[in-house]
Specification:
about 260 residues; about 65% helix; elongated
Length: about 260
């Protein structure tokens, strides 16, 4: 971008005394007398701002185009060679077991971006009730003190059935502010409100298998280079962050063999 700005400024400066200078002429003249640029800026401040803004916009567009191309290339590679998360038998999952598309979600109950991800996944499931299931995996971040306790409660709730785990999951994300302010008191109250067996829950929270499961989730997320939350694998194709619904839709439809053209027919 600096080169674009400099060239634009130099061209503007040369326009004061010359017609259609070459890039070589501009370079040689400015190297010989840099004050040419300063005089032009002082005399034509509006044009200077216009040149800088245009150069910045062009540089930003090039960077965006490059990023989009790199992301598309990476996505195509993952469609050809999908990432392979472990989904153990009996793992807590939301949606039909025979769904064509499995979304593995790595999430943090205290993360505000994960709440956005939760809302988007709700939309995805409403759009694809038969074709999508979601496997929720825990990625509690160190700087969210309530994330690990919430992850443990979620896994413990799952020992009383996937349906209760799902209701607990939804209740926490829909009341994330209370999780932050009340901590474990909120988690206990939520579990009780949802009708969980509190004695069993208390026992299960001490079960070593829960911490092993959460640790395994975290290690798997690290293996796939998910350093922040949320992260998603859609039949092995990654989305890193709280992307909006259309991004999920594009990947899901491609997995399902759908396209805009086939939908119009």
């Amino acid at each position: 971008m600096k080169k674009l700005v400099l060239f634009g400024l130099c061209a503007m400066a040369f326009a004061v005394t010359n017609c259609a200078p070459s890039a070589k002429q501009i370079k040689e003249a400015v190297e010989k007398d840099p004050s040419i640029v300063f005089v032009a800026i002082e005399k034509y401040p509006d044009q200077f701002i216009e040149v800088v803004n245009k150069a910045a916009q062009e540089a930003q567009k090039k960077a965006q185009d490059k990023s989009i191309a790199e992301e598309q290339k990476k996505r195509d590679e993952e469609f050809a060679n999908p990432l392979k998360p472990v989904v153990e038998p009996g793992r807590i999952a939301f949606g039909p077991a025979d769904a064509k598309v499995t979304i593995v979600e790595y999430s943090d109950f205290e993360c505000p971006y994960c709440t956005k991800g939760y809302q988007t996944i709700k939309q995805v499931r409403a759009e694809y009730p038969k074709d999508v299931r979601v496997v929720f995996k825990n990625l509690p971040l160190d700087f969210h003190p309530q994330a690990m306790p919430a992850a443990k409660y979620f896994e413990a709730a799952g020992k009383q059935g996937a349906e209760k785990a799902e209701k607990f999951h939804d209740a926490v994300f829909e009341n994330q502010g209370e999780l932050r302010s009340k901590g474990e008191d909120f988690l206990k109250a939520t579990a009780k409100k949802l009708g969980l067996d509190m004695k069993k829950l208390e026992t299960d929270l001490k079960d070593e298998s829960i911490m092993k499961q959460i640790t395994a989730d975290m290690e798997e997320a690290k293996k796939f280079n998910f350093s922040g939350t949320p992260g998603f694998l859609i039949n092995g194709v990654s989305l890193r962050g709280a992307y909006p619904f259309p991004e999920f839709k594009a990947i899901i439809d491609r997995h399902l063999g759908k396209s805009d053209d086939t939908k119009k027919q």
